[in-house]
Structures are given as structure tokens and as C-alpha cells.
Amino acid sequence: MRTKIRNARRLVVKVGSALVTNNGAGLDKDALDDWARQIAALRATGYEVTLVSSGAIAAGMQRLGWSKRPQAMSKLQAAAAVGQMGLVEAYEKAFSRHGLHTAQILLTHEDLADRSRYLNARSTLTTLLELGVVPIINENDTVVTDEIKFGDNDTLGALVANLIEAEALIILTDQQGLYTADPRRDPTATLISEGRAEDRRYEAMAGGAGTGISKGGMITKIRAAQRAARSGAHTCIASGHETDALLRLAQGEAIGTLLYATSTRLQARKQWIADHLQLAGDLIIDDGAVSALKSGRSLLPVGVLEVRGDFERGAAVACRSIAGEEVARGLVNYNASECRKIARKPTAAIKELLGYIDEPELIHRDNMVAC
Ligand SMILES: Nc1ncnc2c1ncn2[C@@H]1O[C@H](COP(=O)(O)OP(=O)(O)O)[C@@H](O)[C@H]1O
Ligand SMILES: N[C@@H](CCC(=O)OP(=O)(O)O)C(=O)O
Q1: Which CATH architecture is the domain 3-269 placed in?
Q2: Ligand 1 close to Cβ of residue 257 (< 6 A)
Q3: C-alpha distances in angstroms, 251 versus 42, 101, 319?
Q4: pLDDT per residue over 354-367, tens digit each?
């Protein structure tokens, strides 16, 4: 079973406030150095690793000399702004010892809810990974209000795993993994080694945060695992205090709790396209394209006769025959006006017609389901 993490190539690692800030007392630089060492070793063996790190507020409080977490939102946001500097400085220093660059990405809910910002965030992140840079992600605490906050970074970690289509999410925390009950309250609680992420029994076992400095607790980690599984990613919850936890997980060692996804990334994405999307437009396609789509091939611009509706790049659209029958639906690589310009044209003409080429297909077969 633990080959699931070993076989993953794209990983999201989330480190929680409880670890990064050593229970709220500023940044634990030794811990940061140690994760950087392990992530550098993973990169060297071909893994692509994105780090979601908490700690901005706690680091800011220390820099500002505040011993108590303030109540006022504006003070928390000010602390996050000050502390985020310290956090990324510490990571950049730690990774530079291993010849790696880091990049700071601060996200909000809106960035992931809006389709075109989502796609931009995705292409920036995947480009950074291709360049060998380690993205360091946190919530953009300075601009969010209570109502629109992710709040805990477990949720953010799962959304990032979905965003970049990671195969695994590793959540490092201050416990060995998920126990049958909160081990701080119940000394008889035992560690769960593995199970299906969707298994609803885990929610009842999981409680809130362990320390005042953390936000989510175990319940948000279980929900993050469920969310990650919806895009086919497995989640492992393990202790960040465990020696070489990341390296050992990557070698397939059974530490922590593995909450595995039961469908593959591709199945999960296709299911999502089939089930959930409101369609933003129609592409009327010729008979040749109808048979190409029915045999599982991508849709090329040359097979499109007419474009109906006004949609953005990445929107879900229906592909219909001339008679109006829905043949397939999928996520389109160009917006409506670009589609109109390249409809009926060969792929080789896209660059000249639009001034750039994003993808050779209008809809890639991985982003399409036949009806
Ligand atoms: N069933 C459980 N198993 C393990 N830990 C649990 C459980 N229920 C609640 N917890 C608490 O969750 C805490 C970890 O979450 P949290 O404090 O939010 O840390 P982090 O900052 O790493 O996200 C643990 O310290 C533990 O007290
Ligand atoms: N974005 C906040 C962290 C949010 C938070 O504490 O989340 P978590 O580590 O999941 O308990 C910060 O950097 O201080």
C-alpha cells in the first residue's frame, strides 16, 4: 500500500503552525533546515515538491515582540505581513544551501474560485516546478477577511494538490498521524495506519487543534484528505518530528497514517467533468470530429464548425454534432473569441491567427468525457 507515496512524482508537503513555530515561539529554523534538506534530496531523485507552510502570524508576533496572539483582525494581518518576510527568508536561506531557489506564492480563496486566476496560478506553479524551484505557499492573510478565509492550511494544501494535480499530499504535524481519538485527551487512543480517505468514520475520531497557535486540528486534515482524494491524490499525515519523515515516506515506509484515494487522477478528473460542471457554451463539430471524439481522441480546431456562447479559457463546454446531439463535454483550452478565430483551421495556423499557441488541441482528451 505504501508504494502509493513512493510512486508519486508530484508531491505537496504541508507543514503546520505547531511545527514551524515550535508551539508559537518564533520560527524553528532547525526544523525548516531539516525539511529543506529532505526536500532537496527528493528533488534530486526526481520528485517535484511544493511546500505549503504556515507560521507567518507566529513569526510576525515574535518579530514585533508580542507574546499574546492579538484578537483584532488588523493586528493579525499586520503580524502575518511582518512574519511572512521572516518565513520566506528562512526558507530561501535553508534551500540555497542545497543549491535550490524558492518562490513565494500567497493565495486566497478567490484565486482558486475564479477559473482564469486558477489556471494562471496553475501554470505559474507548474512552470516553477519545471524550473526546479521550490514553491512556498501560504494563505494571503493580509488581504483576507474571516468570512473568506481558508483559515487552516490543511484545506489550502488539498486545494494546491488539486490545482497542480499532485499524486500525494503529505501533512506534517505534531502527532504521529490520525489516532482513534485526540491523543492529548485520550491516552488509550491508537494510531490508524491506513484507510480510504472517503471513510466517514475518521471524521468522528478527529478533533480540533492541539495548540492555540494552530488553526485546524485533525478534522481539517481528514477533510483535506477527502478533498485531495477527489482529484485522485493520496494523503499521508505524519509527524514532522520523526527523523527523515519525508524521505522514509518516499521510500515506502509505513509511518504516519495513509488515507488513500480510490480513483486515479484521470478517472477523478473525468468524473468531475461529467458530474459537476455547468456548461458555458457549445462547440458544433463536423462528422469527422464526432467520430474522433467517440474513439477517445482530442478535439482539434479544424473539426469545429461553430462556437456558441461566451466563455473563458478552461470553461466546460459541450461538443455537439450538427444535429445538436451532445457527443462529449470538456474543458476548453481557448476562450470563445479565440475559438471562433481558429475554428475550421489547422493546428499549425493557431500561432499566426492568435499570435501565440497555448495548446495544439482545443480540448485535450484527458479533459474530455464522451457522452
Ligand atoms: N484523532 C486525532 N488524532 C491525532 N491528533 C488529533 C486527533 N484529534 C485532534 N487532534 C489534535 O490535532 C493536533 C494537530 O493539528 P493542529 O494543532 O492543527 O496542528 P498543525 O499546526 O500541524 O496543523 C494534534 O496536536 C492533536 O492534539
Ligand atoms: N496562514 C497562517 C496559518 C494558518 C494555520 O495556522 O494553519 P494550520 O497550520 O493548518 O493550523 C499563518 O501563516 O500564520
Answers
A1: 3-Layer(aba) Sandwich (3.40)
A2: no
A3: 10, 25, 44
A4: 998 878 999 999 99
